[in-house]
Amino acid sequence: MKQRLFKSFFLNAMAVFLVCVTVFTVLLLLDMNDVNRQHLNAEASLAAAVLQSGGQGALETVSLEDSRIRWLGQDGAVLYDSAPDLRPLASQALEMDDGTVLEVSNVGYTLPHLLLQSFTPLLFVAALAVGLSALLATRAAKTVTEPLNRIDFSHPDERDVEEELKPVVRRLAAQNRQILSQMEDLNREHDRQDRLRREFTANVSHELKTPLTSINGFAELIRDGLARPEDVQRFAGKICDEARRLMDLVGDILRLSRLEERGHCLSLEPLDLLDEARLTAEQLHGLALRRDVTVTVAGDPGHIQGSKKIVAEILHNLTDNAIQYNRPGGSVAITVTETDTEAAVSVRDTGIGIPREELPRIFERFYRVDKSHSRELGGTGLGLSIVKHGAACHDAQLHVESTLGQGTEITVTFPKKRPPSFAGSGPIQKRETGIGEN
Predict the structure, then answer these.
(1) Which InterPro entries match (predicted)?
(2) Which element (helix H / strand E) includes 18?
(3) Which has more confidence, 354 or 329?
(4) Is pLDDT above 80 for 266?
(5) What is the pLDDT of residue 166?
């Protein structure tokens, strides 16, 4: 910065010097030309007086330095020329009483001639100007940069600087506070992510260990011949159930990991939410019959641009939860609505609801409101996490409403515009909810 300031100040000073020298030279040239004209007038008057008093003989005795005297006849013929070889630049002519013309001229002054005559003093002045400009530029640059160098950028205090720099120091202090705040937010987020990662690892380990323990226990009983013949088929069925549960868990973990990858949600196509909801209801019709729950689908078409597979997973998880955590004889209503800018699908059940204090955690991985009931139903605890990330993948909004003991409604609102690629968790609005996680 100091070098740039020095260069700027020095070039500006030299530019001012050159402009001043040019203006001074032009003014000096004009003044000298004016003096030269007056000198010519005086010389012409003198020569005319000599010619009138003494004729040509007297005129020939007149000697003017750097001047040329010519006497021209009435017909323009040269009667007398004092310096035929002189090439004058300025002249003054006087008409005599007898009709002849007396002309006095001299070399005058030109800008190159004037500069040549003034070369030595101009060179001295130029050297002096360069030296002074460099000195002044150095001092000016130092004057500007020293107060800046004294600023403590880590802890700027406007009381320690000049008045002109106080706005800069205030902005630095504000930026430092903002940076510190952002760093604290980043540290908190890092700690939160680290905590979630540890919890996720612990939960995965636990969830994997439970079915593996059951599989290993039943298999050892059969291998060691400790199981009665009539129990072998039942134990084999338990092994199959736990293996299927293990496969479901691994599948959900893989789906959730893919949803969390940036750029995963790029394969989009036109979708009709009402058709997707009807297809989901058909797929879960058997489960609804077993749970004695009625599933209905109604509403507008709901056209969006989305990933068919991910939208299907969202609807499947929401509807499956609404059926699993419902009451015998209950109902699940899937409703699709549409406006010019967005389309929404809501899944409402008549379940038991959950306490208000459980609301902030319903979309966490492996979180279950009723852990014992969830295990009976065979859930993995990742259903609503998949819903949350799938909604974020489409830049969709999640809205949850519930009344304890009466039921829950979860609404996913999709924008009509083409959604961006996956960019992390989307905004979620939570109220009381009665949906657990599968």
Answers:
(1) BphY/WalK/GraS-like, HATPase_C_sf, HATPase_dom, His_kinase_dom, HisK_dim/P_dom, HisK_dim/P_sf, Sig_transdc_His_kin-like_C
(2) helix 2-60
(3) 329
(4) no
(5) 65
**For the whole model, what pTM was predicted?**
0.50
- Residue 232 DSSP code: H
Please give the Cα distance from 313 to 310 (Å, whole number).
5
What's the pLDDT at 426?
Answer: 42
**What torsion do the CA atoms of 389, 391, 393, 394 make, to the nearest 10 degrees?**
180
Helix (H) or strand (E) holding 337: strand 331-338
pLDDT digits (tens, 9 = 90+) for 272-293: 999 999 999 999 999 999 999 9
Contact 265, 394 (CB under 8 A): yes
**CB 363, CB 385: distance < 8 Å:** yes
* CA 238 distance to own-chain centroid: 57
Neighbours of 399 (CB within 10 A): 16
* Helix H or strand E segment including 172: helix 166-223
Q: How far apart are the first and last CA of the chain?
A: 63
242-258 pLDDT per residue, tens: 787 777 667 666 666 66
Q: Contact at 8 Å (CB) between 162 and 144? A: no
Instruction: Report residue 372 as tokens.
Output: 């014992």
Of 347, 339, 348, 346, nearest to 415 by C-alpha is 339
Check residue 163 and report its DSSP letter. G
Q: For residues 425 and 417, what is the distance between their CA atoms, to the nearest angstrom?
A: 19
CB 320 within 8 A of CB 383: yes
Structure tokens at 409: 């409604």
Long-range pairs, 275-279, Cβ under 8 A, ≥24: 275/301, 276/308, 276/311, 276/312, 276/315, 277/315, 277/334, 277/336, 277/345, 279/312
Strand-pairing partners, residue 415, are 342
Distance of alpha carbon 184 from the chain centroid: 22
